[in-house]
Design brief:
Blueprint (H helix, E strand, L loop, with lengths): L2 E7 H16 L8 E7 L6 H21 E2 L2 E2 L14 H5 L5 H4 L6 H4 L10 H9 L2 H5 L10 H12 L3 H9 L5 E7 L4 H14 L5 H4 L2 E7 L3 E3 L2 H4 L8 H15 L4 E5 L6 E3 L12 H14 L8 E4 L8 E2 L1 H4 L4 H19 L8 H4 L4 H4 L2 H22 L3 E2 L25 H14 L8 H17 L3
Parallel strand pairs: 1-2, 1-5, 5-6, 6-8, 7-9, 8-10, 11-12
Antiparallel strand pairs: 3-4
Helix pairs in contact: 1-2, 1-14, 2-19, 8-10, 16-19, 16-21, 20-21
Amino acid sequence: MAKVFVFCIGGTGLRVMKSVVMMAAAGMRTSGYDIVPVIIDPHVDLEENTILTTTIGDYIKVYKNATTDRAQQLSAPSGFFNTKIIRLEDLDNQQNSVSTSMAEKKTFGQYLNVGKLANNDVNKFLIQTLYSQENLNNSLSVGFKGNPNVGTVVLNEMISGADWYDAFRRHCEKGDRIFIISSIFGGTGASGYPLLEKKIRDDQAHPQVQSAVMGAATVLPYYSLDDPTTSGSDIDSSNFYTKTKAALSYYEKSVKSDFLYYVGEQSLRANYKNNEKEQKDTAHLVELVAASALFDFLGRPAPDTPQAMTRAIRENADALDMSSLGEGYKPMVKDIANMMIFNLLLDILPTERRFPLKKTRGLNKDFYQDQPFGALKTFVNQYHNWYVELSENNRGFSPLNKILKGEKLSNIVKGITLKAKDESYYLLKMIEAGNKKDKTEHDNTLRYLLDFAYEGITEYTKTI
């Protein structure tokens, strides 16, 4: 199976990758590519780093549970969780993760060994010309604080000879692809993308790496931060556009991706706390759109010349539904609706007393108390929380209505009436799907649940 190595650089790269995982869980297709995420962020204590690593692990757990039946290996599910995600360390049987190998528990000044330079050393004068004292005092363990001039120096050495990069080169084969996700207005992403791309394109010793079809999603400013004078932060979001323009002028003449996707906002509607140590930012529409660029990239043939891509919305609304989003977003809305309906069914199914699939396919009390169902429920709960964050952010991605108990499920998608009025419509279609399926194929109850639920749900949501 062909692979796509997805390099997630910096905090924005982490958040976009989370949306990639969620979209894959909901059934968005990767055109047959397995996803290999590679996290590049020196900020190892960042909670988002831990959250993404956990989310990827939870997805892999569900996928493995759904594709293993006693001694035999099953094909991927047809809908939910149909894409295989593989950790780089699992490909290479390594124990150390990418983020761990990039940790630097020192200041930038210590990294440059400034303290060992004599006061009259010309190199010390050069460093003081290029970098402020704040730059030199910044701890590298919390990233580069929006300073690509710092990130360029540190990341270049971190990438060169790193275990994770060597593993990538060993496992990148002919037909595999590369996709890089980063922001352009910060420090880690703005410096990391061109550095990594150049290293790949200059890798003559590994022609399968050098010639791989490459795409990148470059995220332009889409949020602002609290005033740094009141938060005590070194990051000032009022400089985001200036930094973006400077980086774009450099990218125009230097980047060599086959497809470069630009994603961003025209005004900084969302505002977050200015805390570089925690960065507890909620999921945002721009991250979802940047994630969709990966799926678009995987469905396109290699171009003759580099292509610059972007994506628009139909209306400039604060909260976007399917109408204001535009036609191109319908597949995304359909997938998200499918998963949110699935989440409702997972709450209902364990209490169904007369559900025929309890006896015929093992969807019984023992299954609902077992590890595979628990792992699935854990992930789907994360998905639900992710969508709620998207819908409540500014600008909001909210194509679904919040359905309260007793309300009609037919109104779950704003502006569209589905024929399924309540959960019984979906359960009936699940039963019909179970009756059609050959019982001798396998004996994996979780797989039955995923396949039957997806078939039953899409019978009604296909009208989207």
